[in-house]
Amino acid sequence: MKKYLGTVLAAAIVVALSILGFVFSFPNLSPLQQETLLILVIICAASALYCFVVGQLTHNNSQMDKLWSILPIAYVWVIAAKGNMDPRLVIYAVIVTLWGIRLTVNFARKGAYRLKFWEGEEDYRWQVLRQNKYLKNPIAWALFNLFFISIYQNALVLATCLPALACMGSLEPLGVIDYVAIFASLGFLLLELAADEQQMAFHTTKNSMLREGLRLEDLPAPFNKGFNTTGLWRRSRHPNYLGEQGVWLSLYLFAIGAKVTTYAIFHWTMIGPLFLVFLFMGSSAFGEAVSSSKYPEYKYYLAQVSKYIPLWKYNPSKALPEDEAQPEAAE
């Protein structure tokens, strides 16, 4: 139970903050915001329909994965255009565009995109989930595809961009909080970029040696572990996820800078960035479960390195706590 206590507590905080956002600033949209939101919802609904139908027909459920980095760019530029290219909205859109380019390029390097857009490599997590006893049934999987992969994820991506919608019509000039939002979001974006490059370099080298006929256990350290423990990954299990969450939480600061929030920080559009955090809690836990089943040494890594904040450095020779201690092979 202790193992899930942190996740449960974090989820409770996310839900509580989201409720506070609605309580203190119940949606009261201007006619322009309503018109803009309708456009965004139409795009979102069309995307959800596409993801569901194509995912079912092709058995490739990474359709939303491929759109994840593209849709926010469309959303924020629609908002900026409808908002008469207000400087705050344009800056917001430029940052999201940079974020989207980084993620699209990184996903493309993994073979996700093809000329036939519905083809390409599927995320391994969907393949693992298909083997789940509750999802093996075709009807169960179709419902999962409809409600989680297609509808929920599309709605979440739209929700993460809604702080920009909240800024529409604000007469507040750019101030200190806006500049904090700019530098923080760009800083987290650079963190993601560095983490992506380090991860790509590690796995490219590892896979190159494996293609030469070597077995994983015969590779030189640290590649013989199978997972990355170098660079940022030596101090954080998910530096890329830390950067991703940091970007969108930082962008929410623009709504505070625009002074559309109540009691300094609360606005209903905070629900998007907060539920993104919630999604990454589940995604990271699932990914770690898969890695633990594949790589024997991953349990040592889990015991020593924090999930997000880079605090302690991984030490392969360090023993686990007494109740979990097992002898570890020397690196």
Structure report:
By secondary structure, this protein is an all-alpha fold. The protein folds into two domains: 31-168, no CATH class; 177-267 and 278-314, no CATH class. It contains twelve helices and no strands. α5 runs parallel beside α9 (176-211) and α9 (176-211) packs antiparallel against α10 (239-257). The chain is globular. The chain starts with a helix and ends in a 27-residue tail after the last helix.
Itemize the secondary structure elements and their pairings.
Elements: H1 2-24, H2 31-58, H3 63-67, H4 71-82, H5 87-109, H6 124-129, H7 138-160, H8 162-167, H9 176-211, H10 239-257, H11 271-294, H12 298-304
Mean pLDDT: 89
What is the percentage of strand-forming residues? under 5%
Binned, the helix content reads: 55-70%
The tally of domains stands at: 2
Number of helical regions? 12
